[in-house]
């Protein structure tokens, strides 16, 4: 796994003040400053040219610029980016399931109209399936509008998965569970007496389960959304593993079907449910494997950036699992309509779903309000004197376009005995191989003597470290501006015995699914 490069000296080979790696990345990834219209098209970027929150594990290239316009986001679905197939592997299934549910509701030839109460659980389930695929497509297409909107879209994506999980439980509750011998007291009471020798009336236990299954599934849906939203914060080291685990939890609502196959002859009594139920769980295990292991890109980083990485495979196998689920839910509906018990109520189906939407909306609002994107944003001015253990600096007016013909100087001082560590969180200046037009210079100390490096374009260097407790940052722009400027964070660190900071690297951290 690549790591951010260590601080580089101005003596590195390449243009003055720039590292060879920076020069190479700039010439490789950025358009020329010649004014050629073809060269002005926004290029795809590498992992070290985008914000940390944008970087995916073991995916080295194919990143879109941030921020993009909505039009650019939509156009990117036809371009070879690392998100393109993430979109298509869920957009095509979305169209297939939309067609499937339209046939079920309107063209099935049944005597039951689409608005009949018997079909309310199917409406709940269908809305969950379609919303899950639609939100996944939306999140992957528009995730580069801004960091704040990226977080919001993926929060909505997690919420839609929880919504789908609860909708599945509603469909199971009405269409599948009533046909199980496990939940029939007339069958289970003599079965327990015969197999275990216990004289227990199972009526009360089964009634308690039926009363609790939907409330418990509701609580799990909200809890899973909270956990997944929280996994996008810094405390979570393995967010993809956590998200995979928490979305397995609602699957426990299908345990009665699994127990039915162990205790009774489910294969003989309902072969459709038996085959498609277990095949669905096989697809889910395969999907979880790819999502957690990050295979194949873990084996050969960079080779599967555009086609074949684990998230695309995860999408494909989740589609197959839901396809099998739709098949046996439809079969359960057929059996239900042959001899329906009491009709499902609006409150017990759609009412639950609407209440869940409200709860999930409140969860998302809470996380967005508490996130770093919604906290009080600093106002960045042209230069300044900064002291303390840590802080932020940014180009004037960031994240807006920086002004032309400006020269801004920031002087940073941390406590005595410590050194300054500067990490660029974002940089978008006019691109030029030699950084002749708009650039940021970083100096050791408060004078123009020892320059650590000069940076432009969108290439972000690794941690830049001073030799003492002072550092100076200077940004210069010419008459033509071409970007949103920069933002960087400085922190104070303890030097080691040799006077340099110990083990400062910025690791690629996975923030997406």
TrEMBL record:
<keyword id="KW-0479">Metal-binding</keyword>
<feature type="binding site">
    <location>
        <position position="311"/>
    </location>
    <ligand>
        <name>Zn(2+)</name>
    </ligand>
</feature>
<keyword id="KW-0472">Membrane</keyword>
<keyword id="KW-0862">Zinc</keyword>
<feature type="transmembrane region" description="Helical">
    <location>
        <begin position="207"/>
        <end position="228"/>
    </location>
</feature>
<feature type="transmembrane region" description="Helical">
    <location>
        <begin position="240"/>
        <end position="259"/>
    </location>
</feature>
<dbReference type="InterPro" id="IPR004254">
    <property type="entry name" value="AdipoR/HlyIII-related"/>
</dbReference>
<feature type="region of interest" description="Disordered">
    <location>
        <begin position="1"/>
        <end position="37"/>
    </location>
</feature>
<keyword id="KW-1015">Disulfide bond</keyword>
<dbReference type="InterPro" id="IPR000859">
    <property type="entry name" value="CUB_dom"/>
</dbReference>
<dbReference type="Pfam" id="PF03006">
    <property type="entry name" value="HlyIII"/>
</dbReference>
<feature type="transmembrane region" description="Helical">
    <location>
        <begin position="343"/>
        <end position="364"/>
    </location>
</feature>
<feature type="domain" description="CUB">
    <location>
        <begin position="382"/>
        <end position="493"/>
    </location>
</feature>
<dbReference type="GO" id="GO:0016020">
    <property type="term" value="C:membrane"/>
</dbReference>
<feature type="binding site">
    <location>
        <position position="315"/>
    </location>
    <ligand>
        <name>Zn(2+)</name>
    </ligand>
</feature>
<feature type="transmembrane region" description="Helical">
    <location>
        <begin position="154"/>
        <end position="175"/>
    </location>
</feature>
<keyword id="KW-1133">Transmembrane helix</keyword>
<protein>
    <submittedName>
        <fullName>Procollagen C-endopeptidase enhancer 2</fullName>
    </submittedName>
</protein>
<dbReference type="InterPro" id="IPR035914">
    <property type="entry name" value="Sperma_CUB_dom_sf"/>
</dbReference>
<feature type="transmembrane region" description="Helical">
    <location>
        <begin position="87"/>
        <end position="106"/>
    </location>
</feature>
<feature type="transmembrane region" description="Helical">
    <location>
        <begin position="118"/>
        <end position="142"/>
    </location>
</feature>
<keyword id="KW-0812">Transmembrane</keyword>
<dbReference type="GO" id="GO:0046872">
    <property type="term" value="F:metal ion binding"/>
</dbReference>
<dbReference type="Pfam" id="PF00431">
    <property type="entry name" value="CUB"/>
</dbReference>
<comment type="similarity">
    <text>Belongs to the ADIPOR family.</text>
</comment>
<feature type="binding site">
    <location>
        <position position="140"/>
    </location>
    <ligand>
        <name>Zn(2+)</name>
    </ligand>
</feature>
